[in-house]
Specification:
By secondary structure, this protein is of the alpha+beta class. 41% of the residues lie in helices and 13% in strands. It has helices at 31-45, 70-83, 86-92, 105-125, 144-160, 188-195, 198-205; strands at residues 14-20, 49-56, 60-67, 137-141.
Length: 217
């Protein structure tokens, strides 16, 4: 197991998060599956992380996130621990009384998120067993230039894998959110500010970048 598969997600750091299904099974079979996945993501991950980009593909998903600050995570952990039941705790640890800590809360929430989606998907498809590989992969992003490249990598991923000939028209990534002024859970204003505005964001995506640096797959 590689370090990137288990390293903690620390407060105020950016991460590339990647998850794949077992045996490359399908993660989505309908538009409603994609919508439900995003709703579950919002429920479980938005309280602890900001989201800057994502792409949902047939058997894997990518996210660029930034963990929220230490105080926000500590408050979330305190509230979550107070509301946990014995059965909730058993899902996370052999010791049902082990509290969720800020340094492990992201793994805990991602596990709850993936489990919640998998249970609903399994019921819908009359399927049994684990759907998503554990642990999910994560890579800390420390260099600003890599953030720019990663945004492109995530948005370009549907084209890379042959799901579309033009990633700009792909329905299940965050790219189109940056072309709109409609309300969004994506940190659109902040990300566009990184690029110097929407025009520069679009121009950056018109490039053909070497994305091998971010290859998880």
């Amino acid at each position: 197991m590689k370090k990137r598969d288990t390293e903690p997600l620390l407060p105020d750091y950016f991460y590339h998060v990647f998850a794949r299904t077992n045996n490359r099974e399908r993660l989505f079979v309908s538009d409603e599956n994609y919508r439900f996945f995003l709703r579950r993501y919002t429920d479980f991950l938005l309280p602890i992380a900001k989201t800057y980009a994502y792409a949902l593909l047939e058997n894997h998903v990518h996210f660029l996130i930034k963990m929220r600050d230490e105080q926000t995570l500590a408050t979330f952990c305190e509230t979550t621990n107070q509301g946990r039941t014995r059965s909730d705790a058993f899902l996370e640890s052999d010791d049902p009384y082990t509290p969720i800590k800020p340094e492990t809360v992201a793994s805990y929430q991602f596990q709850r998120f993936f489990t919640s989606y998998a249970k609903a998907f399994n019921k819908q498809q009359s399927r049994y067993g684990n759907l998503i590989q554990r642990p999910f992969k994560r890579k800390m992003i420390k260099d600003e230039s890599h953030l720019f490249q990663l945004v492109y990598y995530i948005h370009n991923n549907p084209k890379k894998h042959g799901y579309t000939t033009d990633f700009r028209s792909y329905k299940w990534s965050s790219y189109q959110s940056f072309l709109s002024d409609a309300p969004t859970k994506i940190e659109r204003a902040e990300l566009l500010d990184w690029f110097g505005g929407r025009d520069y964001f679009l121009a950056f995506h018109d490039q053909s970048l070497d994305d091998q640096l971010w290859e998880f797959e």
